[in-house]
Every structure is written in C-alpha cells, then in structure tokens.
Prior knowledge:
By secondary structure, the chain is mostly helical. It is 60% helix and 4% strand. The protein has one domain (26-329). The chain has helices spanning 8-23, 31-59, 76-89, 97-113, 116-121, 123-139, 147-171, 174-181, 184-187, 189-198, 202-217, 221-226, 228-237, 256-260, 283-287, 305-325, 335-342, and strands spanning 242-246, 272-273, 294-298, 301-303. A 4-stranded antiparallel β-sheet has the order 2-1-3-4. The radius of gyration is 23 Å and the shape is globular. The termini are far apart.
Amino acid sequence: MNFRKLDPAERLARIRRHTLVFRSRQRRPLFVRQAVQFVTLAVVIVIGLQFAHWVDGLMRGVGGGVRPPGVEGFLPISALISLRHWLLSGSYSMIHPAALAIFGLACLAALLLKKAFCSWLCPVGTVAEYLARMSHMVLRRRLKLPVWLDRSLRSLKYLLATYFVLAVFVQMAPRDVAIFLDSPYNKVADIKMLLFFTQMSPLTANVLAALVALSCLIPYFWCRYLCPYGAILGLLSLLSPLKVERRIPDCTACGRCAAVCPAFLDVDRKTRVADAECTGCLECVAQCPAPEALVVRAGRRRVRPVVFAAAVLLVFFGGIGVAKLAGRWRTEISQGEYLRRAQELDGPKYHHARGQVPAYGPDD
C-alpha cells in the first residue's frame, strides 16, 4: 500500500515501528549462543592452523604434523557428491568421509532445530554476525535493502543451491560420481582449497574484500543472499517441529523481537514463525520482556534456550563422535600418498575440469 495514502494514525504507527526495528540500540546477544559460537570458532581456527602446518610440511616434502579431518567441513561439493554416491551404491566414500558427516549433521540439525547450524556453529555466520554488529555500532542503525531488491537477491542463494543439486543429482552419471570421488583432483581438494585462499589471485582478493565490505554495510550479506548451503538448510528447516510462537494476550507490542531478528522477520506481527530465513538464534525469545509472550515449542512442549543449546551440541558434536566410532571420520588416503600428490599439484590431472569428469588410469 502507498505510504502517502495511509491515514495519519497508521502512518505514524509505521514510522514508530520502523524507528524501533531499525534504529533501536544494539542489545547483547544470548549468552549461551555467544559462548557456543566463540568456542566453535576457536576450534575451527585451531583446525585451520593445524591443517596449514600440515600442508606446509607436504609442500616442502618432509611431511610431519597432523591432518585434522574437520577441515573437510569446507568441502561441501565433495560432500554432496559423496551423498549421491552413498544413496546410489550404499557405499560410504572414505576419501573425504568427514565432509559427508558434517554436511549430514548440519542437515539433521536443520530438520530438528531450524537453521541452528548457521546461527550457533557456522564460523562464517559468526563472522557475519559480528560484522553486522560492528556496522550497527558505527551507523547507529540496521540497514535493510528495499523489499523488491531484498527478495530478488535472496533468490540467488536458492538458484545457486538448485544449480549444485541438479549438477550432482541429475547431470552427473552414476559412473562419473564414482570416478570423481576417486579422482586425483578430489583427493587433494582440501589442499587446493587452502591454496585458493593462501595464494589467492587479485580477482579472488577483490571479491572477498567486496563481500566483507558489503557485509559491513548490509547485515549478513553472504548468508542472506549468496550462501547455497544456508538455502538448503533453510528449506529443510521448514520441516522442523520447533517453532517460535507468540502468545498475543501476553505480548506487550514492544517490538524488541523484530528489532533483534537477524533475518528481519516480523516476529512481532506473527503468531508462529515458520520461515526458511529463521536461523533459530532465539534472540527474539531472549530479548522479550514478557516471559510467556515468545516461546519455542516442539508441538505442545516448550523448549527453553538452554535445552535448545544442549540439543544443538548433542546433535552436532555427538554426531561427530558417532562418526568417529563408526570409522567414518578419517580419510583412507595415507600420509605417503598425500606427500606424493603434493609434489605433483601443478600437473594437469590436478587442475579443475570445469564440470567435466575426465578418465583416470590406475596409476593416477
């Protein structure tokens, strides 16, 4: 509806709500979630440093160090192809087993606990959140794109997710799936990923700088508009039994819930938040001044934030423990094979095939 055609009272109400949602002071995040975020981020940093040390030894031809399997969490394409292979053959690929385990656990968390992986565990999500907080601190307001542009850009992550899913599950022949997983390129995909960032081209550096700058101006730019991983988890989260519910009789209409929502959802206008953009961060619940107005429910059962946090940790880290016990965590590639392949990285068989799956011989 045209803003100018509204009656004065409605116009004033909209101005007040806009001021409340976008210009209210920044509030402290839910402590338990902040603790989980920082601990997880610290673990990821340690994994990254261990992996960089290990790769440095390989490149110098001396070996040494320990390859942390958790680094495979940054290989989502390999995980998606491993999932296709598992569904086709019933065989769990042991080239990058932790990649599939982490991807599967993130999907399971989405089915059970909304997009909790994004708001509680994902290191990129954590960095994006604190870039957004820094922006809010400097600009004294939250910036949001116009509705038409916001919706158009949000479709990009779903288009990217659709492209990857179709490429892996429709376009790739079953034989090509097995060939790719055992290919030289896939076997060193983790090393290639590290070198992509440590030896980045000017174009890559400029793109990353642009994404950081945009994330400072527009909160959660990467997560909201471009992350295909988040798009898949968002669609799965629609099946989650957990939902934030607003009890209208207890609601004071203060608008704090909408003011802290990182997804800009109109929590203060809904009776039940069932949206693919909801990350399950529970900031709305934590900031609500009326104890019974906003609650998280699984069916009729209320779920308190501390129980939700315990469930996130149990599903994800408990799942990693199960993967380790089941022997689905450490790669079957030996240190000697990694050492040999690291010396051959400049060879053509380790170059990106641009969507094609070339044939490899037994000696590759």
